Amino acid sequence: MKGFEVDLTRLRGGIFHFRRQKEDLRLGGIESEGDEKMDVWRLPISASLRGKLISAGYTSVTSLSSVSSANLAQDLNISNSEALNVLKVASHSGGSECLNENPSIINGAQNAWDLLHEEESLTHITTSCADLDGILGGGIHCKEVTEIGGVPGIGKTQLGIQLAVNVQIPHEFGGLGGKAIYIDTEGSFMVERALQIADACIEDMSEYNRFLRKDCQPCQMKMEPKDILEKIFYFRICSYTEQIALINYLDKFIAEHKDVKVVVVDSVTFHFRQDFEDMALRTRVLSEMALKLMKLAKKFSLAVVLLNQVTMKHAEGSFQLTLALGDSWSHSCTNRVILYWKGDERHAYIDKSPSLRSASAPYSVTTRGIRNSASSHKRIKMM
Amino acid sequence: MTPQNLLENLSTIQKCSTGCPILDRCLGGGIPCNSVTEVVAESGSGKTQICLQLALHAQLPVSSGGLAASSLYLYTEFPFPFRRLHQLSVAFRSSNCRSDENPCDDIFVQSVHSAGELLDIMSKTESFIENSRTRLPVRVIVIDSIAALFRSEFDNTPVELKRRSSLFFKISAKLKALAKRFNLAVLVTNQVVDLVVPDEGINGLRIGNLGCLYSSGRRVCPALGLAWANCVNSRLFLSRYEEVVHEENGKSYEETGGVMKQMRQLHVVFAPHLPGSSCEFVIKKEGVFGVER
């Protein structure tokens, strides 16, 4: 996969000219659908200006909407009239979104360039632990199914709650401003804990606000912990039939609630370890469920997080720790993260991922939620 | 299917007092409803004491930390400690000014001999709670202990172990379904096994906040293994150890020659709502009480 990406970037230079020509012809038209984060590059302005915009941190058209021409001129080191022109173009293109569809032969087909671009603009949900985000490439990926497993008490549920809260971080703070679906099969979701984590999250955001926007007009923090709880759709499931029924229903539910950006299943395992005489049936049911979740992730570009338990596997005369639900299940998820104890520290390890290097990072569970491990604090301070 | 309103949950979330404010503080208010809590300890550590005390304090009105409810006490280790319950109930009545009714009337006791029987009883429990004409509604289920049901019945072969863990999940799912439907607090006790070769095999695996569990100077681990650990929401561990007390009743170490004193601690091994913490406690005639350091 890594080599594949390199090849594409090499190709990119060649394709780029063609792109620009196309854009120039369209004048103000926007490529492909959606308002992705890095949509500044689609503005019909000169490449050098575009480069200046991106290096100054104006990566999305929306980020240009609130800035004055004088400020922009100063930030980009350009003349005021040029800045005014950029803003004019930006506001114009912002209003004419979805002007034209992607011209492809088969409906829905994409070329590799589009895919690469899509991957670059892929959105993440932060875990609130910088080290963990680091190995995950920015956080839990949208449009992908991520499985997280570990022994009881390692922090699976904590991570699940943290993600359900973090998905709601507004756009201004680099979040997704979305909603969460939390499917609780074990009864471990505690509202008081979610409230605690939500409180800490809001506190961190206002801290960040004060720190970053000292000179600009302060953006008011209007969020309340209760608002965060309101945006978590919580389902408590008591049997595997209910679990399957709910996952079938999710498609309809999310179509009605388009701003759902994460689905957490805590845990996917519990009801499938009870009463299955017929293991082949279990495998079929599970893989069908996984397929549906994967489709949901793609269709609504949301992140699916499946929490899994661990079990002992008897192999070659010794016992090994492995995630539950068997070997065929391990193909069902795009990414697989294993949480484990290393001495007195919690660690996460990327066991499987098509795009990420296998790596491990420490994290800790604090009263405020998932955070960097105490041992890595020193390093952060030095930076 | 519609999602539950979490804000509504927030106002109805309830915890049942263990009967001691210090222990309650350590547990964030008591034993939570709609959740399965496990107490792990070797025999004589105070598991049963805590269970009995919970069953009594559940009867207190909500304003006093109880659930205004009766409890169902399933026991698998014989005999049921009737005399101790009576002793505790006397203390409970005098300290809570409840002279009108006998608290033992609101504790339903049932013996269980096998895992199969436990499943049967749980099915019956559902209709019992639903149709019961008890004075107080049943809101607490105690199983003392779960380990006793499994420690003799199953062989140590892969097939048997698989059957065993499948039963764990079945029992746990039923308990959780009951807990959810009737908003019950469920308390299950579990025994410990000694660790012969530490850091090896399933039992050496670290689960929860404590690196290793020690009781009476021996390294122990909860019975029933990893599969059962997945079946409970919270796990508490009671440990005991002996400490030489240097001063007692004003006498110095030289006079007493050093008295060995039994010390007991409650640890939160894992819980979705609690940080890892521990609290010292003592067992008296009147019940179990936390000690502030």
UniProtKB/TrEMBL annotation, chain A:
Lineage, highest ranks first: Eukaryota, Viridiplantae, Streptophyta, Embryophyta, Tracheophyta
**What's the source species for this entry?**
Rubroshorea leprosula
**Bilayer-spanning residue ranges:** none
KW Nucleus (keyword) present: yes
PANTHER family given in the database record: DNA REPAIR PROTEIN RAD51 HOMOLOG 3 (PTHR46239:SF1), DNA REPAIR PROTEIN RAD51 HOMOLOG 3 RAD51C (PTHR46239)
User: What keywords appear on the UniProt entry?
Assistant: ATP-binding, DNA damage, DNA recombination, DNA repair, DNA-binding, Nucleotide-binding, Nucleus
The protein, known as: DNA repair protein RAD51 homolog 3
Picking any one GO molecular function of the record gives: ATP binding
Residues in domain RecA family profile? 121-310
UniProt family annotation: Belongs to the RecA family. RAD51 subfamily.
One of this protein's GO BP terms? meiotic DNA recombinase assembly
Localization, UniProt = Nucleus
Biological role stated in the UniProt entry: Involved in the homologous recombination repair (HRR) pathway of double-stranded DNA breaks arising during DNA replication or induced by DNA-damaging agents.
List, alphabetically, the CDD domains matched. Rad51C
Q: Which InterPro entries match?
A: DNA_recomb/repair_RecA-like, HR_Repair_Mediator, P-loop_NTPase, Rad51_C, RecA_ATP-bd
Q: Name one GO cellular component term.
A: Rad51B-Rad51C-Rad51D-XRCC2 complex
Automatic annotation (TrEMBL), chain B:
Task: Extract the Pfam families matched here.
Answer: Rad51
Q: Which GO terms describe its cellular component?
A: Rad51C-XRCC3 complex; replication fork
List this protein's GO terms for biological process. double-strand break repair via synthesis-dependent strand annealing; resolution of mitotic recombination intermediates; t-circle formation; telomere maintenance via recombination
Gene3D superfamilies tied to this protein: P-loop containing nucleotide triphosphate hydrolases
Question: By its UniProt entry, which InterPro entries does this protein fall under?
Answer: DNA_recomb/repair_RecA-like (IPR016467), P-loop_NTPase (IPR027417), Rad51_C (IPR013632), RecA_ATP-bd (IPR020588), XRCC3-like_C (IPR047348)
Q: Where in the cell is it found?
A: Nucleus
Has keyword Nucleotide-binding? yes
Give all residue intervals belonging to the RecA family profile domain.
Answer: 12-192
Question: Which domain of life does this protein belong to?
Answer: Eukaryota
Keyword DNA damage part of the UniProt annotation: yes
The entry's keywords: ATP-binding, DNA damage, DNA repair, Nucleotide-binding, Nucleus
Under Gene Ontology molecular function, one entry of this record is: ATP binding
Signal peptide start and end residues: none
Sorted alphabetically, which PANTHER family does this protein's record hold? DNA REPAIR PROTEIN XRCC3 (PTHR46487:SF1)
State what protein this is by name.
RecA family profile 1 domain-containing protein
Source species, please? Rubroshorea leprosula
